[in-house]
Amino acid sequence: MAPRSQPLSRNLYVVSAVSFFQDAASEMLYPVLPLFLTTVLGAAPAAVGLIEGLADGTASATRAIAGRLADLGPRRPIIATGYGVSSIGKILVAAATVAGGWPLVLVARVTDRFGKGLRGAPRDALIADETTSENRGRAFGFHRAADTAGAVVGPLLGLTVYELLGESFRSVFLFAVLPAIVSTLLVFSIRERARPLSSPSAARTSDARIPLFSTDGMTPRYWRLLGFLGVFAAVNFPDALLLLRANDLGLGIIGVVLAYVLYNVTYAGFSYPAGLLSDRFRRRHVFALGLFVFAVTYLGFGLTPTSRAVWWLLPLYGCYSALTDGVSRAWVTDLVPAEHRGIALGLQGMVTGIGLLVAGVWSGLAWGGTGHGPFLVSGSAALVMAFVLAFRGRALDPVRHQGPRP
């Protein structure tokens, strides 16, 4: 059966709605948070990089465990807990506007990302459960499109609240709590289906224990892919620094938010087609194209002296995200048995999160006066990795590729 003829499941639509509302809440905060930190709380760019790096590092520390637990039992309770914890993180961000001080924002972001770490792998594994290899890219692309549509609505709502209520960061941060709560409640509409668990048959006997970590059945191709993604993550610093660079170039808060909305429009608009493309051709080639777009974007940010370039650089960056985010999840799922999807996706999140932590710290410390240096380093590294992946990356393909080769 052709990939386009396979319907997407009810659970996928529910999970996509959950992600839409949570991302709307998160993205009401995200584009203005670096500006709040630097202009209101007086934090340095290094502190912004540290906050985002530690937040992503915290998420990475929980992803593998959450993924493994999702292989051993129901996924929905872990997903619900993750979204609930993230909602608490957004409440703490609002509290920072009263108490002041960037350390409280650090606690809030770590809490938010801890919730993200809990929910990510179980949610992605649940999506994978609803697919086959023929429509997996399309399903993940649809989910990323819905998630990112929230990132279009969220900043626009936040900007509206900011302007209508006297340019108040506090009003924006308080309003963001509402869609986060809606998202958490929607999780309980998921109807989880029965599936094979990852415990070995011996562990089902009364005198055997199920290991917390088990990588039985993980292929060498999976481990090679994991290493590649980790190396790339180490040069892919937090997006908050892109927004800070846009502000430094002279856009101002309204310009930064609107440019960020354009980024999310292209991200949402291209995610589903990118997923379809990865179902038809090799996911490796789609991902390599995304790396090339990333390189062009970062080199552009590093070289441009004017804010006008941001209006095409950030939308172009959205194309990179569309070509890599959902595609990488589908790619990982292709390389492991069904009963190990949770731990495989969790390890992916952990490794890339550690890489983001490294990238956030080094780029923040190397920022200097203009921040162009880290962009040039990351863009150059990504360009090399794109060519290596495209022309020397056959060892990362599934053994049996679905669909025609280009």
CATH class designation: Mainly Alpha
Please identify, by name, the CATH architecture: Up-down Bundle
Poorly predicted runs: 1-5, 200-208, 401-406
Radius of gyration, whole Å: 20 Å
The pLDDT mean sits at: 82
**How many structural domains?**
1
Number of helices: 15
Look at the helices and sheets and give the structural class: mainly alpha
Note the overall shape: globular
Q: What's the story with the biggest beta sheet?
A: none
CATH fold name:
Growth Hormone, Chain: A
C-alpha end-to-end distance: 20 Å
Question: What is the β-strand count?
Answer: 0
Q: Could you give me the name of the CATH homologous superfamily?
A: MFS general substrate transporter like domains
Strand content: under 5%
Q: In sequence order, what are the helices and strands, one letter per element?
A: HHHHHHHHHHHHHHH
Helicity range = over 70%
